[in-house]
């Protein structure tokens, strides 16, 4: 079945001639009527060719031309594979494509796709450079790989007909029958058809379903949630398969892209900015400022988000600042397409390597294994036939290998020597020794967070209020303190690190509820807010979302727009926004959701505070798709990756990691994401892609690049899979 995907010349569309109907967008007022000629020109071909030609050429980087010798060698290798193409089929199966045929004379492959996922994955691998790397493994033998200079100077360039690939993609979309589109113009149905047809704004996202009609389909607005008919001539399918996959697998609402919002080529910014338009706050958590006023950016400002956190240099107040009211040219831009705000965030993706420690240790043991039984001294060339049982005994003093438990054994030995020598020491020496020990100051790492005794026998009478004083004093600190960190993380570590002497969680809840009442009576603002936050978190833990929402809303009301404890504010907004999304409270959560997204995305090194944070991250990513902001989309992908990894949901990370790798333009970002990809490809048993991802990481890093030992292990392990060599032969 064909479909019309034309882009109308006018700005709005009316469902028939006659009186103009006002639309939701006051800036759009013209009419458009799609003609039959427009529809015929926009229909997809009925009998399109489903096969795609993949061509390759072997080029020299230094000469910037085709390497004739290697091109001929690759062509001959391909000719040998024409009759026995099992290896080629296995390669393209890893690349999510189906091999149709091989044309060695033209250096071409003929491939096809049956599903949207196949064409999505293949186009991703093509753009990441993995297809070229995989063809190198297929077409070149060991003589090529043993020449480092030749490997560094050679690259395989692949090419496809992008228009034909897009045509196949659209055909598969039509075949599936349900996908997502963007409104290319405003749609204003007449009053008599208002309930039957959708009213749309320009660039609004719609979930469409194909019907038997040739001029209109069923649609659901992702902004309002309303359902109705939409004209085909006003729709354009989202061109990126990742966006189609994400919106289908992470359904939810999103906002609109307004004309006043700036995105374009602007990058993530920091430092200070200037207001080009004054703003009078509408909520207490917002910042008022005048035109030309300088505003300090707290964290970062990201194009595509409606808000960021700023501090007035004039008044010193902190609050949310609308991005459309500042000059995007006035702040300091970050590196292009950087999704990481600090080295700590970038290094957070390297935790995957810790899962490979045992395997790497076994791998190194096999490589280091030797059957040589003779060792020679260089001085006299004397053979030492009998080696000592303890290798450390033959090492020079000061170079002996440290072994597990050695430090403790030495400490015990020193202690015993001291105890034996103390028998001969004088009373004055013992007194001096005791005095020096008493003045020992603990190191910062030795200081534990304060712990509070939960007195379950405490009543609620006025005379027993002093029993709650330690709890209230601990929580009533103005602003952030390091010992509050355990209160805000999503692992609920405060249950074991901050409170004790309770056997069941309900006992702690009862004690916190009693403390909350005393904090409210004593007007202890910060203690009251933090107690409400803890009670809300414990309610979420028991899936009592409505009760948790009441606690979180009370905490926000108490804080009254203060930002002294930014970690608490971010955790509150994120938890409450996640509940609004879960309970589908569109009318109450739209403004809060935008601000929660700003706190989530704009603050660096912020720890997750709830497992439901993924719902808010998904909303931020949908906003990046709506506004077309690549920096916002990349930032949201990173947040999704980090959260999913911390939750142990590795199987869901791969699409976000691949998308982030495509959006990243900063070499350190590429290295960090490539590390995740190589781990995940190996986990999914995709040896071609595992080796290709590590190889591309080396190409992007340039000279002087060093691989972690676990990635070296991945390369050797997956190379043996490709060659059919058992890993047990490493030690031989």
Automatic annotation (TrEMBL):
<dbReference type="GO" id="GO:0033157">
    <property type="term" value="P:regulation of intracellular protein transport"/>
</dbReference>
<dbReference type="InterPro" id="IPR001452">
    <property type="entry name" value="SH3_domain"/>
</dbReference>
<dbReference type="InterPro" id="IPR042772">
    <property type="entry name" value="SH3TC1/SH3TC2"/>
</dbReference>
<feature type="domain" description="SH3">
    <location>
        <begin position="268"/>
        <end position="331"/>
    </location>
</feature>
<dbReference type="GO" id="GO:1901184">
    <property type="term" value="P:regulation of ERBB signaling pathway"/>
</dbReference>
<protein>
    <submittedName>
        <fullName>SH3 domain and tetratricopeptide repeats 2</fullName>
    </submittedName>
</protein>
<keyword id="KW-0728">SH3 domain</keyword>
<dbReference type="Pfam" id="PF00018">
    <property type="entry name" value="SH3_1"/>
</dbReference>
<feature type="region of interest" description="Disordered">
    <location>
        <begin position="387"/>
        <end position="451"/>
    </location>
</feature>
<feature type="domain" description="SH3">
    <location>
        <begin position="176"/>
        <end position="240"/>
    </location>
</feature>
<dbReference type="Pfam" id="PF07653">
    <property type="entry name" value="SH3_2"/>
</dbReference>
<feature type="compositionally biased region" description="Basic and acidic residues">
    <location>
        <begin position="398"/>
        <end position="412"/>
    </location>
</feature>
<dbReference type="InterPro" id="IPR036028">
    <property type="entry name" value="SH3-like_dom_sf"/>
</dbReference>
<dbReference type="InterPro" id="IPR011990">
    <property type="entry name" value="TPR-like_helical_dom_sf"/>
</dbReference>
